[in-house]
């Protein structure tokens, strides 16, 4: 498959920026979107350093008019869009009892509705052409609902369902749909995602376990360029797959699928020491706190 034009959202930082540069390095014509062009200085600098071009475009995934305008701009400039990559998104911590509905709404708007807006804007040209690829970003927590980040995993489970249905809907038109499911990848989202509501004080243990998962994973975070390489393979391979796990912690997905729901729930009842031991034994990822020195 020859790819000429790709549009990736959230390209000003983290996975989006690294993946955009990696895909441009592989010969794609890449448009990297961001909410305002002044956010793209580092993308421009790193692209120049890599000897590639990532063309900036203004796109706010929470604004339908902005999405439609960006698609029209890229289409006019390039003649069409072969691949859309729905990377833009936000985190959202909190247990279900304590999260305000407004937080769920904000996270769903960015992580789910934003992708749908872009898909709806680009599908007509892909259907008419009889080709194209839509790449949606889920997460490990789109398959493993790890506690105390309810708005985030609710949104990512929704992305999983939407994408699975979409893939079958558009298959007759020659359109490929893929899910990227990153674990912990080097990204600014983790530095921004440190808040927890904890209004009742009843869920200290649950918040502690959630933050410990990230504390254990961040030292092992994989470069975003690795995600770019996986996107390239997902789009170009003749051996089509819907789901593409990648990065530290992604092995949890397969392990969770083989774990009974009852055993998963039981992990919530044990003390911390037993919890971390079971997490390692049953999910294959060591997140136990490490002693200093």
List keywords for this structure.
293 residues, alpha/beta, Rossmann fold, 7-stranded parallel beta sheet, 11 helices, 13% strand
Description:
By secondary structure, the protein is of the alpha/beta class. The chain has a single domain, classed as NAD(P)-binding Rossmann-like Domain (Rossmann fold). α1 crosses α8, α3 packs parallel to α4 and α4 packs parallel to α5. The relative contact order is 0.13. The model has no long low-confidence stretch (mean pLDDT 95).
Going by CATH, what is the homologous superfamily? NAD(P)-binding Rossmann-like Domain
The pLDDT mean sits at 95
> Could you name the CATH topology?
Rossmann fold
Cα-based radius of gyration, to the nearest Å: 19 Å
Number of helices: 11
Helix content: 40-55%
Question: Count the strands?
Answer: 7
**Which sheet architecture does the biggest sheet show?**
7 strands, parallel
How many individual domains? Answer: 1
Unreliable spans:
none
**What is the beta-strand fraction?**
5-15%
Order of helices and strands: EHEHEHEHEHEHHHEHHH
Kindly, what is the distance between the CA atoms of the first and last residues, rounded to a whole number of angstroms? 51 Å
CATH architecture: 3-Layer(aba) Sandwich
The SS-based structural class is alpha/beta
Layout: helices, strands, pairs:
Blueprint: E1 5-8, H1 14-25, E2 29-34, H2 41-50, E3 54-58, H3 64-78, E4 83-86, H4 101-129, E5 132-137, H5 150-170, E6 175-182, H6 189-192, H7 204-217, H8 224-236, E7 243-246, H9 251-257, H10 261-266, H11 272-283
Parallel strand pairs: 1-2, 1-4, 2-3, 4-5, 5-6, 6-7
Helix pairs in contact: 1-8, 3-4, 4-5
